[in-house]
Amino acid sequence: MIRIAAVALTMALSTFSFAATIEPVKNDGADTYTIILEGEITAGDEKHFFQTFSDKVLDGETVASVQLYSKGGDVDEAIKLGKMIRRLRLITIIPKIHDGISETDIPSGYRLRDNRNQACASSCFLVFAGGIWRIGNVALLHRPFISRDSSRNYNDLERERLQKDAMNLVVSYLKDMEVNQFFIDKTIQYSSQDSYQVTQQDAESYDLNEPVPSIEEIVLSKCDSLKKSDKYRPGGIEKYLKYQQCKFPIIQELKRSAFIRELRQHASVLESKSDAIKKYWAFVLNESNN
C-alpha cells in the first residue's frame, strides 16, 4: 500500500514568489489583532502560526481572526492549519466581492507583498474552511493533485490510487469542517489545471459566510433562540442584537478554553516568555485542572 503522506500533495494555481508570511497585525479601531497569512502554504506553517498566535495571547492580547491571501500550496499543511484554527475557535477572512465591488479587510498596518495574492485559492480554501465563522467569497476551487516528481516512480494503477486517496482526504476534511456540499463538489469537479471561482451568490445561497452549525448550536444552547428570519420581523432587530450581546462573551470563553487546551500540548511556546508570564499561565493551567 502506498502511503499518501510519502508524496507531495498539492493544490495551487501557479508558482509562488515567496513562502507564506504569518504576521500579527492590530485591527483598525479595535484592541484586537488579526493574523495575516500571505503567500505559499508550506510545511511548518502550522507550528509557525501557533507560535505567532501564542506570542500575542500570552502577552495579554486578543487575536480575533485570521486573514488569508494565498494561491495555495501544501495540502497536508493547509489541513493542519485549518484544524488548528477550528480548535482555537477563530474567524477566517478572505477578500470579498459585494455587488461587483472588491473589498478587503486588511488593516492599515499591513501592506500585501504581492497584490496577486488578493484571493484564497486552492489549498488556501482548506485553511479558510477551518474558521468557526468564515467571511469573504473570493475563492478559487480545484481538486488536489500529486506532483510530477512525486509520482514519477509509480505506475498508472498506483497513481490512480494515490489520486483517489488525495481527493478522499480533501472531501473528508471539508465535510468535517461543515462546508456545504456545493463547494465540496466544485472542488472535486474542477481539475488541477482549472478552477471554479466562487461567486457572491454562491456564498449567500450555500451559507459560506454563516457560523458553522456545530459551533452555532453551542452558542444557541446558552442564548435565546434565533431564526434567520427573526431580524426581518417586527421587533426582530432587538432580538438579533440581544443574541449578538449574548454570543460574543460565549465565543470569548470558548477561545480561552481552546487556547488552554492547546497550551497543554505545546507548552514550549512559554520558553521565551518572562518568569511572570510563565508563572501566571502555570497558575491558569493548574486551575483549569481543578
Account of the 3D structure:
The chain is built from ten helices and 13 strands. It is globular and about 55 Å long. The strands form four sheets. It has a five-stranded mixed β-sheet with strand order 2-3-4-6-10. Strands 5-1-12 form a three-stranded antiparallel β-sheet. Strands 9-11-13 form a three-stranded mixed β-sheet. It folds into two domains: 4-210, 2-enoyl-CoA Hydratase, Chain A, domain 1, CATH 3.90.226; 219-289, no CATH class. Helices cover 43% and strands 17% of the residues. The chain is of the alpha/beta class and 290 residues long.
Concise summary:
The chain is an alpha/beta fold and 290 residues long. It folds into 2 domains: 4-210, 2-enoyl-CoA Hydratase, Chain A, domain 1 (Alpha-Beta Complex); 219-289, no CATH class.
Annotate the secondary structure layout.
Elements: E1 9-12, E2 21-26, E3 32-38, H1 45-58, E4 62-69, E5 72-74, H2 75-87, E6 91-93, E7 96-98, E8 101-103, E9 120-121, H3 124-128, E10 134-135, E11 139-141, E12 145-146, H4 148-151, H5 156-176, H6 181-189, E13 196-197, H7 200-205, H8 213-220, H9 236-265, H10 275-289
Parallel strand pairs: 3-4, 4-6, 6-10, 9-11
Antiparallel strand pairs: 1-5, 1-12, 2-3, 7-8, 11-13
Helix pairs in contact: 1-2, 5-6
